[in-house]
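Structure in, sequence out. Go:
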């Protein structure tokens, strides 16, 4: 992941606030915890004090400059792309996180030299919260709801990766391109998608040339319309049928 220098300070309540010079945080960690109302006041205060917040512009790589990168990331605004990148520059999207989602990065600091570590990149102007394992673990040891939440977050992360890898392996490129367009359209809530062939290729772990070939075929079928840096879905039902959705 690329460099992204930031600093942090503490406000009057001791909560760590990262200053990325982009967006001022207006959120609370309470938005991230679905059972917040049932937590005891001591646990609420601890989570509020220990939460680390960051803001990112669209396309920035997500980097938390903490002692340990072994906790859970929460998406407060925007979205995050989680992907793999090779030394040769090829990329493969594992899944996308939207507002309200959580993602476990508990393997990062304990990874072996041969382990694969995912990269995180903001899909839009994004605001994140982060809790380190030592902080969230203390609450989990005393509250079964937090322990269950951590388990479910890790399980959802693993399942999302398995679902996408399975789709990439067992479907041809046209199906994958169609699925990428449908999912991007749903995330952006529009049929006019601002995306390049290169970006689609990066998401699917392939090359721009072969993606362009499939885009041209979908356009010739009258399912999409293309422009400079834009793809417009004309027949959503047909595209969903190709994607198997």
């Amino acid at each position: 992941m690329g460099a992204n220098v930031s600093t942090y300070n503490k406000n009057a309540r001791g909560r760590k606030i990262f200053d990325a010079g982009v967006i001022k945080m207006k959120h609370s960690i309470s938005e991230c915890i679905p059972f917040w109302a049932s937590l005891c006041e001591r646990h609420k205060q601890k989570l509020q004090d220990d939460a680390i917040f960051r803001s990112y512009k669209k396309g920035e790589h997500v980097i938390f400059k903490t002692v340990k990168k072994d906790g859970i990331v929460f998406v407060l605004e925007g979205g995050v792309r989680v992907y793999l990148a090779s030394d040769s520059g090829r990329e493969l999207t594992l899944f996308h996180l939207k507002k309200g989602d959580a993602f476990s990065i508990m393997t990062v600091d304990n990874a072996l030299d041969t382990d694969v570590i995912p990269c995180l990149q903001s899909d839009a102007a994004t605001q994140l919260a982060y809790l380190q394992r030592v902080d969230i673990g203390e609450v989990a040891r005393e509250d079964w709801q937090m322990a269950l939440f951590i388990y479910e977050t890790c399980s959802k992360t693993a399942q999302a990766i398995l679902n996408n890898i399975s789709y990439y392996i067992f479907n041809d490129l046209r199906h994958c391109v169609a699925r990428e367009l449908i999912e991007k359209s749903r995330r952006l809530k529009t049929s006019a998608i601002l995306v390049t062939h290169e970006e689609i290729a990066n998401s699917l772990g392939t090359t721009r040339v072969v993606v362009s070939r499939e885009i041209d075929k979908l356009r010739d079928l009258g399912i999409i319309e293309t422009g400079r840096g834009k793809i417009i879905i004309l027949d959503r039902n047909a595209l969903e049928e190709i994607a198997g959705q």
